[in-house]
Write a structure and sequence with these properties.
two-stranded antiparallel ribbon, binds flavin mononucleotide, alpha/beta, Rossmann fold, six-stranded mixed sheet, 39% helix, 8 strands
Length: 180
């Protein structure tokens, strides 16, 4: 708990990267860690600050409807959202993810962050494995593939992990918590 604020970190994670960031955050903030899959809006009402983290799937934040669909009940809270994707951290990516996921009327109230996660093909669900096999065919067909596409192709055989506790610094600082 920070300055007597009741904080909860809620997360949805398909292959573990968001869960790692969410766990680190809850440890740093000494607060509750809730799996989004089994969390209902009624569970969130007792907190002052809700931090929601979700992996990015086709630019959508996994499980973010928990916040978006219940915004009327939650808008009196401090709301922080972080998306975790495999893409490098670039301003254009961050803006696109924010604009696609967070309706305009919520943007002034929801603090948004993008954190780089990773990619681990072996940990994907069967459906996501199929989707990523289709993506692999597309990547292989690309004539002028850039460094991102080449890196993506390599990651099918060699998992990538860009998670780093230091990436949480802006979120922690926004809550008045310094991070060494
Ligand atoms: C089907 C599929 C779609 C994905 N779409 C995106 C995407 O749009 N942008 C991105 O940066 N990463 C994308 N990724 C990569 C994941 O966001 C990345 O692996 C992330 O770290 C997953 O976090 P999680 O394990 O917590 O779910 C995608 C992965 C899969 C399997």
């Amino acid at each position: 708990m920070l300055a007597n604020k009741k904080i909860a970190v809620v997360y949805r994670s398909g292959s573990g990267f968001t869960k790692e960031y969410a766990t680190w955050l809850s440890q740093e903030l000494h607060c509750e860690l809730l799996p989004g899959k089994t969390t209902k809006v009624s569970d969130l009402l007792k907190y002052d600050t809700i931090i929601y983290g979700g992996g990015l799937y086709a630019i959508g934040i996994n499980g973010f409807d928990l916040i978006k669909k219940n915004y009327e009940q939650l808008k009196c809270k401090e709301l922080i959202v972080f998306a975790v994707g495999a893409s490098p951290v670039r301003e254009a990516t961050i803006q696109a993810v924010r604009d696609v996921n967070i309706p305009e009327e919520m943007r002034s109230h929801i603090q948004f962050y993008y954190l780089r996660g990773g990619f681990n093909y072996k940990k994907l669900s069967p459906l996501n494995k199929v989707l990523m096999q289709i993506k692999k065919i597309q990547l292989k067909k690309m004539k002028n593939s850039d460094a991102d596409a080449k890196g993506m192709l390599e990651s099918y055989d060699h998992p990538l992990d860009f998670t780093n506790k230091k990436n949480l610094r802006p979120i922690l600082e926004s809550l008045g918590q310094s991070y060494e």
